[in-house]
């Protein structure tokens, strides 16, 4: 009964989404107010219906309703409760429902936090998001209904893939999807702007915080996925250039370009067309990511769904979405105009170059990801494009981009002066070169690429120091009494957030450089009592014992790590065999630290109690994810900038003005904030 | 600078950048593609010489042999027509098993395929399409051979 309610709610949601899409947009185009005001309530009803449907599916999972085919295919009664819930998005149908739910939540958020936007704009944005939902709900109802019944019901489920039975599954897909789906807001704003023909700086200001939030979630989602792969797959790698990883990385690259180009459009009114095009591309790549991962066209660890019919539907959906939006763009864009002018050396140019490089990098990754599929579909042989291709293309593109990343924030808008910039950045360049030469010798070994990595990381950090100290000098006179820290905190959040994110990039580069150069890996056969010493750490193999988990049994090894005979860590790598899918699984034993990870995974027994064992020493590997999370935090922090809250406060103040005067603090904010944020950015 | 000149400069810089990027991509594609090759192709000599490629097929039952160091293994990969012996030093992936599909990347030297990587990226019910296709081809070749043998009677 419950699954039928869920199914029915989904059908109703589709009907509401059609109304939400068609009536709201038509109302805005024809200027019929009574149609436009329907957008917000429609978004609310749509959300409630999709949420009801999601809760029904969750109910089926929690109470092990194996008469539902989807539940029977990805869950099992022995599965612990947290994984039974996470299993909702462990397969194809459920992850689509999660997609639809997140889309409904984003739409609700737009409806809720857009009170200061003109009504026609809001209804267009909500309408476009409604149409996207129509596509997804139709896809679900026609090809992949999570509520399909299984008759007769299964006695027990086929269980969740053991690779997915990990806390990573609880957080990684939702975070990633919040990011993916969040770009639909940027897309909807772009389409709304094209429909209305109004693409001014206010449009960019509305769309920017939404885009940055989505970008932050996507960043965190990718980082979490990378970390998960690192500890779960037992291979110690953190990025494999696997097509599924690329599928999430593509919208990230173009989304990063979008975040920066929106900044130019908001501040200077330039790049309007380009920004809109980027918004369309970012969301299209999010859709393509869903298509690549969920249609089963790829062979990779993630591709669990194998069904070409669905692929054809998503492909059609993709063609309609991208085709209509590009056609709309071609029709409307020539009217937009190029916006503010700028000179050849200016912050605009630096940001444009950054944009071009990010988009070209995305193009190269896209080519490498789709090329094997293309050749295969043309029957020209099967090939694989491996990590060397991506490294060879990606690195040379990123090096100049990171270099410009240091220059961009200190260049003036409109017209910058090269000699002036050179003199301001003089000591930053010296610091990064000196660190690049010294650090490798401190670590013990020198390579050209290692020096390059250090130089880039320190270049970013020292350019931020330059930019910060220049700003603080400016505020020094007005804020003389305050300490340095207080003055830093007083800087606009948008500026601080940007710097946090950029420091994140530097931290990330440090991590990658360190791991790639100074990592030590050893595969060996170890008998009980055998020791191996690497980078000062002694690993002693203390044998293997059998242990039993809730739905698996495992051989658990014990490895004692000592430094100078003092115990540093005890690691427990496992080799698990899950009861239902009888698939062996490696669980690495990891001791994480700020400056190094010790990583051990078990191979197989090779006789006489001996095992093949893989041991890693990974310096600074945690910085890779630490840096990425800094990027995400920086993005969220930038959105908390007060200029985005200004409009809503103004409105509240106006309401209050009739009754009582607003508090002194907020009045002061309202008068000074706009000046500050405009001048300082 | 006149606006027209400025625009030209932007376009030229952009084109130069794109040309460099295209060069990078083509160069990287050229040297880093790995072709999927079946054991029959290897026996017929249809494989890249000196560069790495991917050999796919089934691991022959009972062919896995381990050296005394516990890490170096030998196993036979077959497409049901021809068989190639593969050697690999290191820890085999979780899903590696005799009688299931495997993809290995490496080079042929002296009639032995030295793998630098062994991939078994599929679960119990699911075989990678590359391996499936190779087995299918092998099956067809066998049928054709059988048909030819019949015809010659």
Question: How is the topology of this model organized?
Answer:
The complex is a heterodimer of chains A (681) and B (153).
Chain A: H1 2-30, H2 33-36, H3 39-62, H4 69-74, H5 81-86, H6 92-112, H7 119-143, H8 167-196, H9 201-232, H10 243-268, H11 272-294, H12 308-332, H13 347-377, E1 383-385, H14 387-407, H15 418-424, H16 426-443, H17 448-476, H18 484-490, H19 493-518, E2 520-526, E3 531-534, E4 537-548, E5 552-563, E6 566-571, E7 574-578, E8 584-587, E9 589-592, E10 596-605, E11 611-619, H20 622-639, H21 642-659, H22 664-680
Antiparallel strand pairs in A: 2-11, 3-4, 4-5, 5-6, 5-7, 7-8, 9-10, 10-11
Helix pairs in contact in A: 1-3, 1-7, 3-6, 6-7, 6-8, 7-8, 7-12, 8-9, 8-11, 9-10, 9-20, 10-11, 10-13, 11-12, 13-14, 14-17, 16-17, 17-19, 19-20, 21-22
Chain B: H1 3-32, E1 33-37, H2 39-44, E2 53-59, E3 65-66, E4 72-78, E5 83-89, E6 101-109, E7 112-119, H3 129-152
Parallel strand pairs in B: 1-2, 5-7
Antiparallel strand pairs in B: 2-4, 2-6, 3-4, 4-5, 6-7
Verbal overview:
The complex is a heterodimer of chains A (681) and B (153). By secondary structure, chain A is an alpha+beta fold. In chain A, 65% of the residues lie in helices and 11% in strands. In chain A, strands 3, 4, 5, 6, 7 and 8 form a six-stranded antiparallel sheet that branches. A four-stranded antiparallel sheet of chain A has the order 2-11-10-9. By secondary structure, chain B is α+β, with helices and mostly antiparallel strands. Chain B has three domains: 1-33; 35-121, OB fold (Dihydrolipoamide Acetyltransferase, E2P) (Beta Barrel); 126-153. Chain B is built from three helices and seven strands; from the N terminus they run αβαββββββα. The model of chain B is unreliable at 122-126 (pLDDT under 50). Strand 1 of chain A pairs antiparallel with strand 1 (33-37) of chain B, so a sheet runs across the interface.
């Amino acid at each position: 009964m419950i699954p039928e309610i869920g199914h029915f709610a989904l059908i109703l949601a589709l009907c509401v989404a059609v109304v939400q899409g068609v009536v709201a947009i038509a109302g805005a185009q024809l200027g019929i107010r009574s149609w436009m005001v329907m957008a917000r309530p429609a978004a609310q009803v749509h959300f409630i219906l999709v949420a009801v449907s999601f809760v029904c599916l969750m109910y089926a999972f929690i109470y092990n309703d194996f008469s539902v085919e989807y539940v029977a295919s990805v869950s099992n009664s022995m599965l612990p409760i947290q994984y039974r819930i996470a299993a909702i998005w462990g397969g194809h149908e459920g992850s689509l429902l999660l997609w639809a739910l997140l889309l409904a939540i984003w739409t609700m958020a737009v409806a809720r936090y857009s009170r200061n936007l003109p009504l026609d704009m809001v209804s267009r944005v909500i309408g476009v998001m409604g149409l996207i939902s129509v596509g997804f709900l139709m896809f679900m109802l026609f090809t992949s209904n999570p509520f399909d019944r299984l008759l007769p019901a299964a006695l027990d489920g086929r269980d969740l893939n053991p690779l997915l039975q990990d806390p990573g599954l609880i957080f990684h897909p939702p975070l990633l999807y919040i990011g993916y789906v969040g770009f639909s807001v940027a897309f909807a704003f772009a389409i709304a702007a094209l429909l209305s023909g109004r693409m001014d700086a206010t449009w960019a200001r509305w769309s920017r915080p939404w885009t940055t939030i989505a970008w932050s979630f996507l960043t965190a989602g990718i980082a979490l996925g990378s970390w998960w792969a690192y500890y779960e797959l037992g291979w110690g790698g953190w990025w494999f250039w696997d097509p599924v990883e690329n599928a999430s990385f593509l919208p990230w690259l173009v989304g990063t370009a979008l975040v920066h180009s929106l900044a130019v459009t908001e501040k200077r009114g330039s790049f309007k067309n380009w920004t809109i095009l980027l918004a369309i591309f970012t969301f299209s790549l999010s859709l393509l990511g869903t298509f690549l991962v969920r249609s089963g066209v790829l062979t990779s660890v993630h591709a669990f769904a194998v069904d070409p019919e669905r692929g054809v539907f998503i492909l059609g959906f993709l063609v309609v979405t991208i085709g209509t939006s590009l056609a709309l763009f071609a029709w409307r864009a020539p009217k937009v105009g190029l916006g503010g002018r700028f000179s050849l050396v200016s912050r605009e140019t630096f940001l444009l170059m950054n944009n071009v490089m990010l988009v070209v990098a995305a193009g190269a990754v896209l080519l490498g990801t789709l090329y094997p599929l293309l050749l295969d579909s043309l029957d020209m042989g099967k090939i694989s494009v491996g990590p060397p291709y991506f490294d060879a293309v990606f690195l040379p593109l990123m090096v100049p981009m990171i270099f410009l990343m240091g220059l961009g924030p200190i260049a003036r808008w409109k017209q910058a002066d090269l000699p002036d910039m050179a003199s301001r950045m003089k000591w930053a360049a010296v610091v990064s070169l000196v660190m690049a030469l010294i650090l490798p010798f401190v670590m013990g070994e020198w390579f050209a690429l290692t020096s390059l990595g250090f130089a880039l990381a320190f270049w970013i950090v020292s350019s931020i120091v330059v930019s910060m100290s220049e700003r603080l000098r400016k505020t020094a006179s007005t804020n003389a009494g305050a300490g340095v820290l207080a003055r830093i905190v007083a800087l606009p959040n948008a500026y601080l957030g940007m710097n946090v994110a950029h420091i994140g990039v530097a931290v990330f580069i440090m991590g990658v450089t360190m791991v790639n150069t100074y990592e030590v890996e050893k595969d060996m056969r170890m008998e009980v009592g055998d020791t191996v010493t690497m980078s000062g750490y002694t690993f002693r193999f203390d044998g293997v014992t059998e242990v039993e988990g809730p739905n698996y049994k495992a051989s658990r090894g014990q490895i004692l790590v000592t430094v100078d005979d003092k115990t540093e860590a005890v690691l427990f790598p496992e080799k698990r065999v899950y009861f239902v899918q009888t698939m062996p699984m490696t669980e690495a034993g990891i001791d994480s630290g700020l400056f190094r990870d010790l990583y051990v995974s078990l191979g197989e027994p090779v006789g006489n109690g001996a095992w093949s064992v893989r041991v890693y020493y990974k310096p600074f590997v945690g910085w890779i994810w630490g840096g990425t999370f800094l990027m995400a935090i920086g993005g969220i922090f930038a959105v908390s900038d007060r200029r985005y809250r200004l409009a809503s406060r103004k409105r509240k103040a106006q309401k209050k003005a009739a009754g009582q005067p607003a508090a002194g603090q907020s009045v002061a904010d309202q008068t000074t904030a706009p000046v500050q944020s405009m001048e300082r950015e | 600078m006149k606006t027209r000149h400025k625009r030209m400069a932007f376009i030229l810089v952009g084109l130069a950048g794109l040309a460099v990027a295209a060069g990078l991509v083509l160069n990287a594609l050229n040297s880093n593609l790995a072709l999927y090759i079946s054991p029959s192709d290897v026996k017929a000599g249809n494989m890249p010489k000196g560069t790495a490629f991917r050999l796919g097929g089934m691991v022959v039952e009972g062919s896995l042999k381990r050296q005394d160091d516990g890490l170096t293994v030998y196993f036979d990969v077959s497409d049901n027509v021809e068989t190639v012996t593969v050697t690999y030093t290191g820890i085999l992936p979780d899903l590696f098993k005799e009688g299931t599909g495997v993809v290995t990347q490496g080079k042929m030297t002296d009639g032995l395929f030295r793998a630098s990587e062994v991939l078994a990226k599929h679960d119990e019910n699911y075989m990678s399409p590359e391996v499936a296709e190779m087995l299918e081809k092998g099956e067809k070749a066998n049928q054709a051979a059988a048909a030819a043998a019949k015809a010659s009677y």
